[in-house]
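Researcher: Please predict.
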Amino acid sequence: MKTVSIPDIGEVQLVKNSRSRTIKMTIDRNSTVKVTLPSWAPYKAGELFVLSKQEWIKEHIQPKTLLKHGDPIGKFHHLYFRSDETVKTVTSRQKGSALWVTHPHTLKHTHETVQASARKISMKALRVQAQNTLPQRLTQLAKKHGFEFSSVSVRQLKARWGSCSSKQEITLNFFLMQLPWELIDYVLLHELTHTKAMHHGPEFWKIFDQALPNAKSYRKQLHEYAPYI
């Protein structure tokens, strides 16, 4: 067996099996990616197989982050945990900019049930933030840089920050609210550029650089973030 590290995926187990005739991949409930290869296949073939399925893997692995007391949620909220001896179930509520998760004193905030409740209310807050912020910002950037788009929608995307169809319909991931403002603008301008160039060739980057000088320099920063909480 060999373990390799794949960018944006993490550690992947490559296992050779004399009974295997093809390359197969599984993801367990702990989000561990395992690739089984025929005994005659080189490990490199397993790595290439994972890279070819990268987007699919991102859509199926579960986030491993642990939400903590005081965590910022997007741009306008913070998450807080409260232990209460009088309650028997986990509850959550929003009070102004604060997202409160109350749990029995017998449970820690790291407990799966508590984390699930925290994640649910946090995602709800992010969705509202995004719906109230991103379309307006997209319109501002479009007017400023001479782009046009037919529609914009905000929803959860599992592996992408945004998309643009051939009909100039732009879809934005509400997890964008977790990014710094300059990276939010980078993604919005990236999708707006696709209204003029539906590819990533030289023409695309020429148009993109006119709107955001040295646009490629932001790509590395974006890779430090993932569309989940």
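Model: Residues 72-127 form one domain.
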